[in-house]
Amino acid sequence: MYTRMSKTAFDTIIPREDQVHPEDHAYECESVITRLIKNADNKVPLVVTCPHAGILIPDDVEGTLAVDKAEVLSRGDRFTDWLTVNAPAIGAKQIISKIAPTILNVGRSPMSLDARDVRGGAGSLNTEIDKYTHGNISQGIVAYKTLYGGHPLYKAGQEPDEAEIRNRLDTYYYPFHDTLDSHIEHTADKFGYALVFDIHSAPSVGTHADVDAGEPRPDLIFSNNPNEHGVSVDNVLLNELVALAEQHGLRASINYPYQGGFVTQQYGANGPKGEKDYIEAFQVEYNRAAIGVDEQTLELVDKAKFASVQTFTNTMLQHVARYAQAKSEASLSC
User: CA 210, CA 32: separation in Å to the nearest integer?
Assistant: First the structure.
């Protein structure tokens, strides 16, 4: 269906133990890594975002923790940036958040916070109870408890206060979203269209808080945030990606158990920043067991599995890029 871009075979790239994020073709600030081919603009209207790939725990924060570093890093989507490492090679941009999502979650609304958790009170912070903060689970933009077990993350009297939360927002949250905003806007201006590919990973079995509690999950879950305004990307693309996954021996679902997170809600065609067909977005969740990641530590333990899924991801990125190019050509011809 999409013929303008030829298929390319890319090398498998497994991170060394001393590598946190992909380093080549990258420029970065304290909080965000942006990757594209050096001295080249994006060649396809595709932006790949990895909001939960980070493992950074600032030194001043580490000293306030009541749990060890491994406990903090056991939550997140580590290595999703490495699954999509070849995005710049096909002409896309890749944007990676460096902060550990337990410390500051850039994949949440900036208001996702239970005011009762904030030491000394929330003050003038805008807060709201949502699915990440209801029932005192404290998993909003700043987590106050461990994801599994609900134990306090911070030493008594050293929990984040209003000033600390504002500092984390200013240092990590807003730079990530400002970077994402600017690259999406630039891409849409250049091509008449932009597609956002939002990548995550998830437990292999539904947790007690999920709609699929106790159920084994497929290898991939694609989401396009269906709501009363439509979908964040055309169902045609997701159906094509499910078929592509099956060709590679992978099981996939659409909008179950996940329907899309903050990025797809904001930037999708049915969200506040998606202007009809001008910008689209979709989410993919990889089953952690399927990509060879230990589900307790999030360490990479099966490199053969990881390499196989990275090979599939390279194929999927090229398919998505061809879809985006076709949408761009249709937009510019109007």
Answer: 30
